Amino acid sequence: MDERGTVSGRGRDEHASSSGWSTAAAGAAIVVWLAFGPLGPLWLYVLGWAAALSALEGVSRLVRRQGRVVPSPGRLVAGLLRLGPESWLVAPRWARVRPAAGGLLVFAVVSGCMGWQAAREYQAVADLREHGRRTDATVVEVTDRSEEGRALSVAVRFDAPSGPVRADVDIPSGLADDARPGAVVPVVYDPARPTEVRQVAFLDGRDADGIRTGAIVAGLLAAVFLAGTTREVLRARRPTERDGTAVS
């Protein structure tokens, strides 16, 4: 009886070790991607994470073939915190709660980070509209392009009362074709912080609007996962059909 329980428990650990770590890594990738912006083209970023997860799966299988057990993320955290076997991180009855709680955490963090970024952008644009100075800046180089080759942002140089300033600014689609070194673009900068610069077309707060929309979408997804987590927690705490007693 004990031997069968040990074997089944070990099998559960081995199954969770692969999918558990993959889920945790994918969740971390979503947080990094949405909260801090894309690190290069989207297809390259997705391909990189797919390769990383495949490598993780291969290493996990290799370790299991050698007779070793790779703990799941929940079991590892529970061990570090010295939590008992009934902890929601490791207990089988909480199996459906864990992914729901993970989704809630991921999208809540994403929504909070994007909301904070939107608030900062709104404040920066408001300060520039109120105290900013307009000038013509010279394009030094194109710093970012779309996958189609269209300029997305450029490095510009202009003279401020404190001296020459070099800064990166986003370029609207209407100026993308003309954004080449030597071209002149109108910008607004903060005299107190000359490196706080926006191209005049972005003083309407369009960037902040896009970030805010992303924060709202992530917040709605967090609400969905919150409802799912609550439902699964209530289900896990109901009396089991096997013993008819409430589980605390």
What does this structure look like?
The structure is a single chain. The protein is of the alpha+beta class. Strand 4 (184-190) and strand 5 form a beta hairpin. Helix content is 54%, strand content 18%. The protein contains five helices and five strands. The model is unreliable at 1-18 and 241-248 (pLDDT under 50). It has a five-stranded antiparallel β-sheet, covered by helices on one side. The protein has helices spanning 2-36, 42-65, 73-80, 97-131, 206-236; strands spanning 133-145, 151-160, 163-170, 184-190, 193-199. Helix 4 (97-131) runs antiparallel to helix 5 (206-236).
Give the topology, please.
Elements: H1 2-36, H2 42-65, H3 73-80, H4 97-131, E1 133-145, E2 151-160, E3 163-170, E4 184-190, E5 193-199, H5 206-236
Antiparallel strand pairs: 1-2, 1-4, 2-3, 4-5
Helix pairs in contact: 1-2, 1-4, 4-5
Give a brief outline of the structure.
By secondary structure, the protein is an alpha+beta fold.
Give keywords.
alpha+beta; 248 residues; disordered N terminus; 5 helices; single chain; 5 strands; elongated; disordered C terminus
Mean pLDDT: 75
Sheet with the most strands, sense and barrel status: 5 strands, antiparallel
Instruction: Indicate the percent of residues in helices.
Output: 40-55%
User: Unreliable segments (pLDDT under 50, ≥5 consecutive)?
Assistant: 1-18, 241-248
Number of helices: 5
Strand order of the largest sheet: 3-2-1-4-5
Radius of gyration: 26 Å
Approximately what portion of the residues adopt beta-strand conformation? 15-25%
**Structural class assignment:** alpha+beta
Describe the global form: elongated
Instruction: Please trace the helix and strand order, writing H or E for each element.
Output: HHHHEEEEEH
Total DSSP E strands: 5
Distance between the termini: 25 Å
